[in-house]
Amino acid sequence: MIDPENNEVAGFGRDMKARMINKLSQKGKKKRIIGQAELYPAIVARRLWKHKIKGRDVIHFFDNDAARYALVKGTSPCLESAWLVQSFWTNESETDSRSWIARVPSRSNIADGPSRGDRTECEEIFPHINWLEWTDAQEDYDAKAWLI
Question: Cα separation of 125 and 85, whole Å?
Fold first, then answer.
C-alpha cells in the first residue's frame, strides 16, 4: 500500500496456510487455486488498511486475469472465486471506497515477491516500508467462517 497523502508505504506477505488451501481446493480435489490465491490477498489488504481506504479511491493491481475479470464482473463461475469476490465487494461497500481493478504484468508486480515470502525488492525500493502481519489465526478464522 502506498498512501499518496502521506507517502506511507506498507506491505504484507506470507504463504497461505493449510486450512485456507484446503478450503479453496475443495479439500484437495482442485489442483489449481491460482485465481483464488490472487483474490484472497486483495481481501486481506482491504482488511489491513480498512481505516486507510475508507471513503477513498483505491487502485488494485492484479497479474492474474481470472482474478481481475472476476472482480470486474462481480462474480465467477468458480464457487470459491465467487465467494472471495463477494467478500471483496462487501468490504468495498463497508468502507465506502471506490476501487479500480487494473492489470499489471507479473514481472512488474511489486507484490509478487512478498506473496512468495521474498521482501527483498520491496525493501530495496522502499527502505522504510512498514510490514504488517496477517496471522494464522486470522486466516483460520476466514477459512472457518466462509461457508463454501
Answer: 31
Quote the pTM value: 0.88
Q: Is the pLDDT of residue 28 over 80?
A: no
- Measured CA to CA, the distance from residue 42 to residue 81 in angstroms comes to 12
Q: Which residues, in sequence order, are bridge partners of residue 29?
A: none
Rounded to an integer, what distance in angstroms lies between the CA atom of residue 105 and that of residue 61?
Answer: 9
Residue 93 and residue 50 in contact, taking contact as beta carbons nearer than 8 Å: no
**How far, in Å, CA of 2 to CA of 83, rounded?**
27
Query: 53 φ, ψ to 5°?
Result: -90, -10
The residue length of the chain stands at 148
Sheet-wide strand order for 8-11: 2-3, 8-11, 130-131
